[in-house]
Amino acid sequence: MISTRSARRSRWTLLAAATAALSAAVAFPSPDAAAQVTPGCAVDLTGLLGWWRGEDSGAAQVGPDLAGSPGFDSGLVGQALVLDQDTDLTAAALASVSDALTIEMWVRPDPLGPFPSIQTLASRWDAPSQDDAARSYFLYLDGSANLAFETDDVSLRRSQGVAAAVPQLFDGAFHHVAATWDATTISLYVDGVVVASAPSQGGPLNAASSTPFRLGSKSGIGPPFRYGGLIDEPSVWNRALTAAEIGDIQNRSSAGKCDFVPVEQAKLTSPTTAANDRYGTSVAVNGSTVVVGAPFAGLFGQFTGTAIVYTGSGSGWTEQAQLVADDPQVGDRTGWTVDVSGDTIVTGSYANDAAGPDSGAAYVFFRTGTSWAQQAKLVPADAAGGDGTGYSVAIDGDTVVIASVADDDAGQDSGSAHV
């Protein structure tokens, strides 16, 4: 007859193996794919090449940062970029568009009225004498209070575009403008409504890689046609947004096109992990501290397990410590679950044998300066073999909760949690 303790150990081994097999077999979406369907965004972010929020910097939310020295003032969505007809803002190495394009932004031109010359809102327009295959797109206001958008391809060697009278843009308020191109049609939108549309040539808008995307000016032959006023939340897309999507951005107004946008900052790995360590089985974050569990790591024998700590700063994430229990044993699986609060980390070791085979435990580590040391090993007063204490853990301030998922207080494997 198989003993209860042996059966439990077999069950825990099978559970761990099944979990490992599942994590190896399941295909999880990439961070980019997750960002494209983020709840809280007015539009699908697929094809977003560049987005500059103007929150007191030229840093991009998506795409390359802006070079130049704009001013900043209250915008419609947080802070806006201030251009004074002397400022060039450029984004080098912006990805090229292929068969569709959208440029959209909130604008507040100088309320004194239209200037007698063209004012560029956005462009990626080169001099044909420099690269005869490089001219592409140009969104601007002209001296007659028209909003206009032009494209150029290499076969026709002449621009095609559309314009609409929009004197309302000069009323001193923010207005949303957008231009779309899909190799068939060019459309202009103001405040979510189509104000002009016309047929357009096909062919890629293949600006040379050396031609920067510009806000508030153009490059190439002739004057730069600089803009005077505010631009907020400008973005460029490698697809033509639908009228409904542009209307959704307009309707969200000061809420912005997204409540937030996840941007992958780093991919964390550790030089000490190896094949089958299952690094990332558990993760936790508090402020600028991240902890990652690797319960199958074999630093002190097979499956002893570990947890790795990272700290974040403006320059990225740096590994600060590798947490190992003071009494590591084969099969403990320390790091199966982790949590962090301030300078304290708790990690579960559900297969620890502190009170019998697979009774389980949790370890508490505390940081002083940049050094981590074990502060306690938590074992319930009524711990028994097979309880699986530490299968999940949580910490907030000075309070820790650890689960004993196979505790038998109310019947076999009924479970309990210890505070």
Please give the number of β-strands.
26
Overall pLDDT metric: 85
Order of helices and strands: HHEEEEEEEEEEEEEEEHEEEEEEEEEEE
Largest sheet: 9 strands, antiparallel
Assembly status: single chain
Number of contiguous helices: 3
- Give the CA-based shape: elongated
Catalogue the unreliable spans.
1-6, 18-37
Structural class: mainly beta
Task: Report the β-strand fraction as a percent range.
Answer: 35-45%
Structure explained in plain terms:
Mean pLDDT is 85; it is low at 1-6 and 18-37. With 419 residues, the chain is mostly beta strands. It has 3 helices and 26 strands. The strands form 5 sheets. Strands 1, 2, 3, 4, 6, 11, 12, 13 and 15 form a 9-stranded antiparallel sheet that branches. A 6-stranded antiparallel sheet has the order 5-14-7-8-9-10, with no helix packed on it.
